[in-house]
Amino acid sequence: MGTWEKLKDPVKTSLGDSFSQAGSVFLKSRSFRIFVGIYLSGQCGMDFVSGMAIYYVDEVFERLLQGLLDHAHGCSSRFTASRNARVWTYND
């Protein structure tokens, strides 16, 4: 029991030839090149948007924290106790 196909002799190629043959198949395919372009564009866009989101969140938190610290400092410096009179005074 066997097949009716004729066996072909194996092709002997070097490792470099194997990679160049495999690469040429993908680089010649127009749909593959379009797919790679779409994939790389999507990855670059996602990287840019996530970087901008991190920058935005960092700026918002920095300004929020600075505002809270300014507010806390303002509240504590406006009402100070006089050492001599031991009464609360309002400093503007």
Task: Please outline what is shown here.
This protein is mainly alpha-helical and 92 residues long. The chain has helices spanning 15-28, 30-78; strands at residues 79-81, 88-90. It has a two-stranded antiparallel ribbon with strand order 1-2.
> Taking strands numbered 1, 2, ... along the chain, how are they ordered across the largest sheet?
1-2
| Oligomer description | single chain
Q: In which range does the helix fraction lie? A: 55-70%
**Radius of gyration, CA atoms, in whole angstroms:** 35 Å
SSE string, helix = H, strand = E?
A: HHEE
Work out the number of β strands.
2
- Which consecutive residue ranges, at least 5 long each, have pLDDT under 50? 81-85
Structural class: mainly alpha
Terminal-residue CA separation: 104 Å
Shape: rod-shaped
Discrete helix count: 2
- Integer average pLDDT: 76
Main sheet specs: 2 strands, antiparallel
Strand content: 5-15%
Which key features would you list for this structure?
single chain; 92 residues; two-stranded antiparallel sheet; 2 helices; 68% helix; rod-shaped
